[in-house]
Structure formats: C-alpha cells, structure tokens
Amino acid sequence: MSPVFRILGPITVLEEGREIPIGAPRLRTLLAALLVNANQTVSAAELIQWLWDGEPPAQPQRALQTAVSRLRGVIGPGLGLRHHAGGYRLEVPAGSLDLCRFRLLTAAGTADALAEALRLWQGEPLTGAHDYAVVRDKRAVLQEEWLRAAEQLVDARLALREYAELVPELTSLTKRFPLRERFWAQLMLALHNSSRQAEALAAYEELASLLRDELGIDPGEDVRQLHLEVLNGPDATWQVHRQLPADIGDFVGRQDEVKAVVAHLTDAAVPVVTISGPPGVGKTALAVRVAHLVKDSYPDGQWFLRDSHTTPPPPDKRVLILLDDAEDLEQVRALIPPGNSAVLVTSRNDLAVQGAYGTTLAVLEPAEAIELLRAVLGAERADREPKATADLAALCGYLPLALRIAAGHLALRPGEQIAAYADHLRGNNRLLALALLGDHDAAVEAAWSPW
C-alpha cells in the first residue's frame, strides 16, 4: 500500500495510520521537492538546488544518489520513486498527497469543497525542509494558492448570503493580510449586506489609509467601484457570482440530451430542468456542460449549489442556478425564482416538477464508453489495444464514473498495459459489481485497489 504524504504543514509520511519518522532535514527537503512535483520528473540539477542551495558537495550526483537511497530505505518499498530521464519521479496515487487533494477540491469550486480543501492545511507548508531560497519560493507559491482558495470560499459563502457569519472571519483575515485588497472588498460587502453601511465605508477608509501609508497608492479600481456602490445604496451591490466548475474537456456522448436541455433553458417559458439517474452515470457532467453552453444567456451570474439554503435572485436578474444532487422536490421549489432566471437540477431521484423538462440518464453506449477511455488515456494508447479497451469499457459497465476511475488509474501509469489492468479488475468481481450498481466508494476501491 502506498504511503500517505502531507506537505501542507509539517512534512509527514503515514503508513497505515502510523507516522514514519524522517529524521534528517535533507531527506525531508528531498521528499518535499519530489512531492511538490508529484508524478513528474524532477531533474537532478533541480534536486541538487533544493538540497544544497547553490553550494553542492564536490560530487553532487553521487551525493544525490546517496540521499535518494537513504530516503528509499527510510520509507520502504511502498515509495514509488523511480530514476527517470536524468532525474527522479515520485509516483503518488490519487488521494495519497494532501496537495493533490487540495487542488482537486479547489477546482470543484463549491463552498463545501473549498472548506474541505482549506481544512487540509496544518500550518506553514513544507515545514521541516531546509530554509533555502528554493524552498521559500515554493512555500510562497503554495501560500498564494491558500489565499486564492480562501477568497474563493468567501465568494461562495457570500453567494449563499452568509453575510453576518463572514464579518468576524473577514475582519480577522484583513488583520492577518492587511494588503490583500480582495479580503477588504469582501468585508465591505458582508458589512453592507448586514445593514452595516457605516462600518463598510469605514473599512474602505481604513484600507485607503493603509495603502497610502505603506505603499503610497490608492485602492484598486474594483474596490473603489464597490465603495461608490455602497455609498449609492443597497441595490447597487449586486455581485455577479460565476461558480460553475470547469467544463469537462473530455465530455463524450449525450448529444441529444445536451440539445434538449439547452433548448429548454434558452427558450422555455419556465426554464427549469431536472436530470436524474443512478450515481456515477454522469448527471453532473451533463449539467456542467450544458451550463457552460448557456451561461452567456444568464449574465447576472451562474450559481453552483449543493443545497437550497439560499435566496432566489430578484426578478430583474438573469441567473442560472445549478443545484447538484437534490434529494427532493422541496429543495427545487425553494429555488424556483420569479422572473428571468433558470434552475438546472441533478438528482438520483425522479423529480416531477410541474412545468419542468426532465431527462433520465442511462449508462453510455459501448462506442461512447470507448471514446471516453480514448479521451482520458489518449487515443494512441487506447488504439494500440482496441480489444482490451473495449473489454475495459464492458467491465466498467459503460458507467462514466467507473470508466473515469479506471482511466485515471491507467493515466498515472503510462507503462501499464490496458489488458493487464482489465485482468486485474476481473479479479475484483465483488467490488466491481458494487461499483456497477453505483456505489461510489466501492467503485473507487475496485479501480484503485493495489496489485
């Protein structure tokens, strides 16, 4: 079993819940260099810079090899460290590195995902590595990622109208990062929408004074515009929130469904659409693809929600609301707005919303499933083993979730044959059967279980 690695705080290695002590700072630094570039080849020259900060020993290549050998000895056979193309590559499975999980969660962009991403941080990143320039530079890059994720989370919570709850948190953030204008702007919004206009204006004046004293500059255009909107009254502070997850570049099939849903969201008198089907069948992927196709028709925002605890937009706004994984009709009804907005819902249950257009998804057609594998793996690799690719699609039951998990496993192992992995799945019949019934956890375990 592969170890679990943490670098968003003290550098830590866990094996079956037990911490493996990495005593020497140089070994922790080497591990950090490999983990911030996980699943990529890091050149020997770059690793030497990480380890000796421009003052390498007389024989740096030999010294690097010794450090690598010591690291392997400390962590053991589970360390997927390989010599590759003039450098070293540390292969880390999905879910085994906190930085990878952090980035996946921030890419999802929802309030829940962003909150979970920020909880992964346990202090200053790369703690325990040598305090060299390259380490400090990489630490600064990671800290900037934390700040952007924190800003995203505040934006998502502002969209959920959590104004009063955010005021103390944003007050603290502006104290910790006083030159970060975005936090000040978010504090002004939270105060103003909590009917605390005087405090919102005072926050602007505090920022303006700080910037003049520290940097000799005025606040940026966005903050100055927000200041004017606060002065002009509550109706001027409508914020356009664009919360859609990234579009799925390897989306395949569902062309009839895409056309029908797009048409309903752009032409129907009551633009409400429900997409239902079992877990893993691709409901969210279809909804996100459609949302990106129609987003220009909803210039006042695109909201991505996991619950209905928010206020519908006012009648004069055109907002697209994507409610993912709704459980019942009440959640949908709570969001149906008067006026010009639209609601797009995914659910495991059939939701018969009056006046809405509904579509139910099944698994992909065999040709579509093969096309999805080709898109994720690369057409050249899949076409080298056409029979194995077709077998793998069938073993996954043509279910998009299972297909993506299996293809993700293979994408991280470019040297592994598709046929060998298909044989591996055949040996996991019980778990695979659960995966095809839509059990997400079982699907993950079946496709990612070690050899």
Walkthrough of the structure:
The protein has 451 residues and is of the alpha/beta class. It has four domains: 1-149, Arc Repressor Mutant, subunit A; 161-239, Tetratricopeptide repeat domain (Serine Threonine Protein Phosphatase 5, Tetratricopeptide repeat, Alpha Horseshoe); 255-360, P-loop containing nucleotide triphosphate hydrolases (Rossmann fold, 3-Layer(aba) Sandwich), CATH 3.40.50; 366-448. It has 20 helices and eleven strands. The strands form three sheets. The protein has a five-stranded parallel β-sheet. A three-stranded antiparallel β-sheet has the order 1-2-3, with no helix packed on it. The chain has a three-stranded antiparallel β-sheet with strand order 4-6-5. Helix 7 runs antiparallel to helix 8 and helix 8 (181-192) runs parallel beside helix 10. It is flat. Residues 430-451 have low confidence and may be disordered.
